[in-house]
Amino acid sequence: MAPRSIWNGAIAFGAVTIPVKVFGAVEDHTISFREVHLADGAPIAHKLVDPSKNDKEVDRKHVVKGYEMSDGEWVEITNDEIKAADHSERKAIELAVFVPRADIDSVYYDKPYNLAPGDDAGPGYALLAEALERTERVGIGRVVLRTKEQLVALRAEDGLVRMLTLHASDEILDKKDFDVPRVSKKPEAREVKMAGALVDQLAADFKPGRYKDTYRDRVMKLVEAKAKGKEPDLKPAESPEPTDDLLAALQASLEGAKR
Known about the structure:
The chain has 259 residues and is α+β, with helices and mostly antiparallel strands. Helix content is 24%, strand content 29%. Among the domains are: 105 residues, Ku70, Chain: A, Domain 2 (Beta Barrel), CATH 2.40.290; 29 residues, no CATH class. A hairpin with a 2-residue loop joins strand 9 and strand 10.
């Protein structure tokens, strides 16, 4: 089944406008479970209750959205008011600047989307893709996607333009806030050389097909085993022991990689 576009608009920069269609770039295969009644297997429903009134059930029509300004002080906000706050109805991905790809730390990237040219927009789309690839730059701009304004980056590879939503700077945790202890003794030159040699020996091209969701596979095997009446092996995996002699461990790793 061919994918359906989730948004139709355009890429706009300078005086250039290129109609595009936006498609999802990833598909969630997360295993989901349902809560059921043990006695008869009936699905369990969650009800809205008021904990201040002995968990009395509340009709959904009496439930509103609120933002807590301070302890116990709430401001009611309606869905229409939330939509009105994001008043900018951009029907285009408006690019403001083009920055070097290497300048963007991967921590800023969030969700990817694939872009395809709109009707009769193939030449302009191909031109933009080629320009982004040759200059090794990424277009940074904004777009309203699913009623919410998003900061996005446009990058190209092999003729495909991909849009990635970006985290705002205040969403990124400052590395200074992490208490990483300083090492008093620097690695020896021989250790650094051997570690580099090991990295070189284990070097390979990235091939996504090599990497599967092993968690999903293990959970499905567990489900299938239980369906057949087999008891699962719940023995936890052993934690690896920290390396005491780095030099010896590096030497053994290098010899193992050679074999």
